[in-house]
User: What shape does this take?
Amino acid sequence: MLVPKPDAINPGSLILVTGASGYVGGRLVPRLLEEGYRVRCFVRSPQKLDEYPWRSHSEVSVCEGDLSDPDTLIAACQNVDAAYYLVHSMISAGDEYARRDRELASHFARAAKQANVRRVIYLGGLGEMGEGLSNHLRSRREVEMVLRTDGVPTTVLRAAMIIGSGSASFEILRYLVDRLPVMVVPKWVETMTQPIAIRDVLRYLVQCLRVAETTDQTIDIGGPDILTYREMMNLMCDAIGLRRRKIIDVPVLTPRLSSRWIGLVTPVTSKIARPLAEGLKNRTVCRNDQAQQWMPGPLRGAREAVDAALGKLQAGKIETRWSTAGELPGDPSWSGGTVFRDQRETNVMAPPEATFTAVCRIGGQHGYWGADWLWQIRGWMDQMIG
Assistant: This one.
């Protein structure tokens, strides 16, 4: 006997968002509010939400808790119609982080079941199961299965690279092409991927609430373009206005080495870069267009998405960044919001105006305080490589 699907979850319903301080969650909340939903944010550190303008919205409530604490989870799920699970560790540390992710997802699934939540929505990653699937993507598959274990209807949206100002993938790509005229990359640079704009990810996440057909379904979401990572790098160069970089792929460059190089060249740490680098070897392309059949709407192409992200960056209007997510078990100590500042002082016997003028004259035709010839050599080297 066929079991009828639950009705659509319409505006006015109470929606729980876990990971509301993260990159996607911080942008999802205002979209839900715009559509008329009431939102409850489940976060470890409520003060992290204070910087968001939607924090003071009358339809936003905040529940402080921890995914490892079943009691706070059950309280957060009470009277909720749908719950977004947007929590996933980006620190690749052997099997421990994957085991911990399964454990946290299990706590959430049981709490949702006990509170009679009508639907769970999870944002996972594209990539087919098999021996070659990266540990990070495999862990996301495991989380999908765990969320469905207790029987709560779960909508899984799978995405590849998300292009948006402040996303880890976008920042890595931007900094690599901006800083390296010549790049030595893994052979996976020829792997096909189907990137999607963050705007379109958010549209699918919100729209699936009202589309009953998406209940308990796994849906691939992606933009209209299927590209190799090499083509993505060239596209980024064109968008920034740089000459296309010399890209040399070698078979011996491992994810570990790649992540260390990314950590050196970009602001994204090697621990976060590693699972992203591992995922390069997996083809991440949508299997069908079911998402557009159920939730039709315009999709931004890769170039349009990159231009939009760069525009937000230049205007200083970045809603969230990859680094805004709260600390999870297995994350480094600094990920919970601590900011390190290198501050040094020295006393100068001169007026502030004169001191500032002297500092501004360092370099250029005036030279440096010492070893001018070394700086000249460095300048020649920069000119030689463009």
